[in-house]
Design goal:
CATH architecture of one domain: Up-down Bundle
Order of helices and strands: HHHHHH
Helix content: 55-70%
CATH topology of one domain: Four Helix Bundle (Hemerythrin (Met), subunit A)
CATH class of one domain: Mainly Alpha
Shape: extended
Number of helices: 6
Largest sheet: none
Distance between the termini: 67 Å
Length: 162
Amino acid sequence: MKREEPIEMFMPPNMLKAKMGGGHNAGLDMAALKRAEQAMEELKTKFGDWLIEDLRVLATARGAYAENQKPEARAALLRAAHDIKGQATTFSFPLISRVAGSLSKLIGEVPETAALSLPLIDAHVNAMLVIHKQAMQGTADEIALALCKELEARVEELLPSK
């Protein structure tokens, strides 16, 4: 006859929970959290100004590249586009981030020996300016989404086959 042994369960100790004190909000300074939230709300009022400045830097870099298509000008253009790509979503403009990502891909992946398409660069820069001017802070605008897709398709056409 088969002998049945009782099942033994072992639960490893939750060391993080023990260090935090175990409770739901234990270890959290709720006043500090509230101050951080207030600071973020205050910063949000400055986001628009920061984005405008980033778009100015991009437009200036575009102008410099149009005048002189040297590697330094191209690098400045890429840096400006990449900065906007990384920050625009934080500034509540995800579509600008998407367009800046497409522009970054164009600049970064087209071989350095090849000239970049100025009309395509202009289309990207102008799209970002329009999205900002129209305050398109969501991702639901069908026209803006179609524009993003079209810009991305034009960039893909110019990229070398992988």
